[in-house]
Input
Amino acid sequence: MSKENIKQGSFWAFLPLIVFVLLFIGSGIIAKDFSVMPLNVAVLIAAAIALGMNRKEKFNKKVEVFMKNAGHPNIILMAVIFILAGAFAGVTKGMGAVESTVNLGLTLLPSNMLLIGLFVIGCFISVSMGTSVGTIVALAPIGVGIATETGIPVALAMATVVGGAMFGDNLSMISDTTIAAVRTQNTQMKDKFKVNFWIVLPGALLTMVILGVMTWGNEVVLAGDYPFELLKVLPYIGVLVGALVGVHVLIVLIGGMVFAGIIGLMDGSFTISSLLSAIAEGIMSMEDLALIAILIGGIVGMIQHNGGIDYLLYQVSRKVKTKKGAEFGIAGLVSVADIATANNTIAIIVTGPLAKQIADEYDIDPRKSASLLDTFSGCWQGLLPYGAQLLAAAGLAAISPVSIMMYSFYPVLMGICCTIAILIGYPKRKTEAV
Output
C-alpha cells in the first residue's frame, strides 16, 4: 500500500480503546489500587461503546462487523490455546511438576553464586511454566531466605526473582504473551523464539554479571531438604522441545497435558477424578483471558471499520519515514498500552492487530514485530510498581514494590537490547516467515 493510498481515517474510532485504558488508570488512581477494575468489565464497557458509535450505520451491521472480527480464526485459535495452556498448567501443578522443578534448581544452586543461581532458576522455571507470576510465587520465599541469611537487600533478591520470571514470560512457548504476539503477527513460535532469544540473551548475561559483582563474597548453604523427581520435570521439557521443533502448538499442549496426567496417575498424585478437576480448574483460570481476547478482537474490528487503523497508518506514514521508525512505533504502541493497563498480555492483544498493519506496510519481519510486542510489554511489566509481578513479589516479601524498581536490572536491559536490535536491523528480513 503506497502512502498516497492511505486514507486519513478517524481518531475518534479509538474511543473504545481510550475508554478501556482510562478505566484502568482512573480507577487505579481513585482507589489507589490498579487491580480494582476487572479486565472483563472494562472490555465489556469498551465493546458497548464500540457498538454505540457511528449512529448513521444500522446496529445490525455493526453487530455483524463486531462478531465477524471477534470470531476471526486467529482470535478463536488464540482463545483455544489460552484454555489449553491453562489446562496444562493445572495438571502439571497438581502432579507436583512445579515443586520438583523449583527443587531441582535449588539443589543445583551454587552456594557462592546465590543470586545468579536464583536468576537462572527463575529463567528456567518461567520458560517451563509460561507464567511470570507463578514463578514469582514459587521463588519469592526462597529469595527472602537467601537475603535474610546473607544480608543482601530483600528488594534486590525480589528484583532478581522478577527478572528471571520476565525472561521466561517473554520466551516461553506456553506463555500467554508469546501466544498473543505470535498469533497477532502470523508467525511461528519457534521462529519468534529464536529471534527473541538472541535479542534478550545479552541482557540476561549482563544481569548475571551485575548480580555477581553486587553479591561478591556472600555465601550461604540453603538449609532444608529439596526433594525432586526428574520424571515430573519431563512434561515441561517435552513441551519446550516439541514447540522448538515445530510441532503445532495445539498438539504440543494437548500432548504435554496428557503426558503430565499419565505421570500423575502412575505415581498416585492423581485419581481420575482429581485429574479431571485439575484440568477443569486450569481451564477456568484462563476462561477470562480467552473471553477478553474474543471481545477485544471485536473491538479492534470496529476500530478498523470506523477508520481507526487508517488514521494510525496515516499518522505513522507522516511521521515515520523509515523501517526503523516503524519498529520504534510498534514498540511505543505496546509500551503505552502496557503502562496504561499493567497487563502485558492485554497490551499485546490490543495493539497486536495495529502492529501487524504497520509491519505489513513497512515490510517488517513478523518474527521481529512479535518480538517487539513481547519484549517491550515485558520490559515495562517488570518495572511497573502497580503491575501484578512487582505487587506479588513485594507482597510475599512484605516490602514496597517501589523499592524493587531500583534493582530491576533485567527488565531495563531487556528494553535496551531490543532497542539495539532495532538500531542494528536484527534480524534480517526472512520473507518465508508466515
